[in-house]
Amino acid sequence: MLRLLLIINCTVSFLASAAAQPPQLRAGAYAQDITPQKFPISVNGGFNDRQAVSAHDPLHARCLVIESQGVKVALVVVDSCMIPRDILDAAKALAEKTTQIPARNILISATHTHSAPTVAAVFQSEPDKDYVQFLTNKIAEGIDKANKRLAPAKLAWGVAEEPNQVFNRRWRMKPGVKNLDPFGRDTDQVKMNPPRMSPDLLEPAGPTDPTVTVLSLRTADDQPLAIFANYSLHYVGDMPPLSADYFGVFADLMGTKLQAGKDFVGMLSNGTSGDVNNINFKAEAPKAKPGERSRVVADAVATAAMKAINKKEHTNQATLKSATTEIELGVRKPNAQDVQRAKAILAKAQGRELRGAEEVYARETVLLQDYPERVRVPLQVLQVGEAAIVAIPCETFAEIGLSLKKKSPLATTCVVSLANGYYGYLPTPQQHQLGGYETWRARSSFLEVEASTKIERAVMDLIRELRQEK
User: Fold this and answer.
1) 106-110/71-78 β-pairing
2) Is the bond preceding 242 in cis, omega lying within 30 degrees of 0?
3) Calculated CA dihedral for residues 30, 34, 35, 38, nearest 10 degrees
4) What 3-state DSSP class applies to 111?
């Protein structure tokens, strides 16, 4: 009897101790292939449409699911230029049905590779309906597969810098330099992607963000499981379509550098790079073979990512939270005079492909007249441990990301652009005053001038909301 009582007492003590321990963190990751199955297919990212007849390298929707204390969140990075909200909402709804992960806990972003199939109608590129449906299903399928791989895991956050691969692409021009926009005005004070080493260059119009922010996931026995990284570089663009650009090279390099197994998933999200690219306008263009520049940039960013997580202590306990909101923003619509001028330009080009900025933006002007006066823009903040992941559905300028990081009370904050939808460029009001390509009214830039101020305010409200939750 005494022996039985001792066994019962030990069992009760063990169960009580186990109950007192918070549930361990779990994670699962999967790289879902989203390469189209039929060609040719439209590729956007330029004034004129391109048709890809093959894939240079595979495209993926890289999916990560994390679970802690009964809460699940999903992070997805898609090799696409930009993805409209309706596609992502549909993918989230499908994923929620199969995984029970609430749609509000799912963050899906586009990398902004300019060599992926068109899914957002911008300039002269139109999406293929079959590929849109294919992509929607594959994103949801990838989240489901990542969810099915959930297993005990550990995580850590790290931050490093790689300042040598980012350059502000908007340059102030010297006084007196003629700088026409496509609407017949010469009021722009800056030029996007000016001629390299031009004597007319004065100074960059804004900063860059050199930060490489990294969320590292390991298995319970300390094997690499996944990396979710964030870097504020537009893209590189030295590989033929279809291509994941340097984002895909980074994913492969991280697996190699970590000596990871075949199921490891590397992910690189696009930060606040609306006005940032990889061109040093004060230097000559280096000679390089196709893809060489992407490998150089990816290796530099991957090296910084390794530095960020080197010797970081991974934990199997982390708080997961999500906060979302929608804010209503005005649309910069053309007036009757703008539309009349645009129609006259298009009439002269009737029957052929549009050429040059004036003709392309004339078409954008006509299309924008049918836009609503106001749009609802989704914003999201995920808290993973002591870090915040901010999702903004725009091509966000670097100074906005820098401002949010400075204001955030969390230990680490990264801002993901082109997330949960596509609402064009997001300059600050001050950058709107300077003009330039990113401010030109089109389906690629239509939000009100004060949009960034209102978005930044709403994001900070979401971060404070998360911090106040028990």
Assistant:
1) parallel
2) yes
3) 140
4) coil
What's the CA gap between 393 and 423, in Å, rounded?
A: 6
- Using DSSP bridges, classify how beta strands 60-68 and 167-168 pair: parallel, antiparallel or unpaired: unpaired
Q: What is the pLDDT of residue 22?
A: 55
Predicted pLDDT at 468: 82
Question: What does the buried/exposed string (b/e) look like for 273-284 if buried means 16 or more CB atoms within 10 Å of the residue's CB?
Answer: bbbbbbbebeee
How does DSSP classify residue 390? E
**CB of 361 closer than 8 Å to CB of 440:** yes
Query: What's the confidence (pLDDT) of residue 23?
Result: 60
Query: Listing from the earlier edge strand, what are the strands of the sheet with 201-204?
Result: 190-192, 170-173, 201-204
How many C-beta atoms surround the C-beta of residue 179 within 10 A? 16
Q: Is the dihedral of CA 403, 405, 410, 416 positive or negative?
A: positive
Query: Band of the pLDDT at 17, cuts 50, 70, 90?
Result: very low
Residue whose pair of structure tokens reads 């999903």 in the numeric block = 74
Q: Count CB atoms within 10 A of the CB of residue 100.
A: 9
pLDDT at 16 over 80: no
CA-CA distances (angstroms) from residue 142 to 54, 78, 138, 243, 265? Answer: 23, 11, 6, 19, 12
Contact 389, 414 (CB under 8 A): yes
